[in-house]
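Thread title: Can someone regenerate the structure for this chain?

I was given the following input by a collaborator and told the matching structure tokens would be attached. They weren't. Posting the sequence so someone can regenerate them.
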Amino acid sequence: MVNFFLNNKHFKLKNISFFFGIVVLSLTIYLPSLKNGFLNWDDNWYITDNPYISDFSFSGIINMFTHLYHIQYSPLVMVVLSFLKYTFGLNPIPFHLTSLIFHIINIWLIFRFIDLLTGKTDLALFVATFFAVHTLQVESVAWMSAIKVVISTSFFLLSLIYYVRFNTTERKRNYYLSLLFFILALLSKEQTLILPLVIVTIDYFHDRKLLSRKVILEKIPYVFLSALFLTIAMIATYTQGFNSKMPAVNILYQIEIVFYSMFNYLSKFILPVNLSSFYPYPAFINYYMLIIPLLLTFIILFALIKKLITRKELIFAIGFFFINIFLTLQILPVRKIFMADRYMYLPLIGILLIIGFILNRLIKLNPKYKLHIISIVSVFIVFFTILSFSRTKVWNSSLSLW
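Best answer:
Regenerated them for you:
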């Protein structure tokens, strides 16, 4: 495990120094969140009044793994919450500290994943830095009920990392570790069941023959696990009265909502202001909203034509984004909200990769651009850090939230 964190051919001491700087930025943003209390926005039923996490005994842990709770199955997160409650009571500081620790772990895992996948350390540092400071991430870290997002992401990324290592070394140990961490991710958040699609994009990025017998057989255990947890999720949805709360389905309107969601996610990625903990379905959709997605599409196509990004890089990055956000696009309305900041926690990596690939290529084409790009990137880092620090305070209490 020490080798995983430190000893590899890409490792350099300066990378640790850069990562330390990222950690300092993260602490600057999120240390105030340690003073946050529990909120009346899901924290009550998920943590303070949750009967399952009140019993940190062997039988209590078994109950967590054998029962659904509020249409959810995330027993591993329940165990973490139960341990925290058993050890510290309902003191919110250890709960928020745990969430922050997992976020910092995720920053490192993103750096390792992209560095191993692409061999581009500067790109990995770029993505990890903006993942750490972007304001859309605040909800996932500062809101206790979103702790399953940061925990499941850790196991999700570990599974991807070991799959990349398996691709490059063909050591079975890495394959089995990837499967193990996939199981842990599924036990933390059922939406991680889309991981098999992500590893297909990794195969594509590594120029593997996607239809070869060997590659297909490798995917069978992943697909089986996804199907199993999809079944559990469907049982949870249709046996605990959730159907009665679903809004009526209007196919045309839901298609509009998908585009409207994408517009909002992309616009709030660029300028994360007017964020909210609750985004209700709009009564009216302005079709001028398509301007931003169309503009971004034009920029990406221009970059592709000008060879600022390869087709392989573009397909992997876009694939990573859409695969990870697909289940939250409300194609079928299963929530009273059409979007949420926390839904971008993992998909954000895909957008950052597109930008990172383009900037990396610009610097290679003309090294004189490097200083200008670093200056612009630094301004955005400071900008997002300030916004995120301010946004963290919103989650301090129910009063400040609403």
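The chain has one domain: 2-401.
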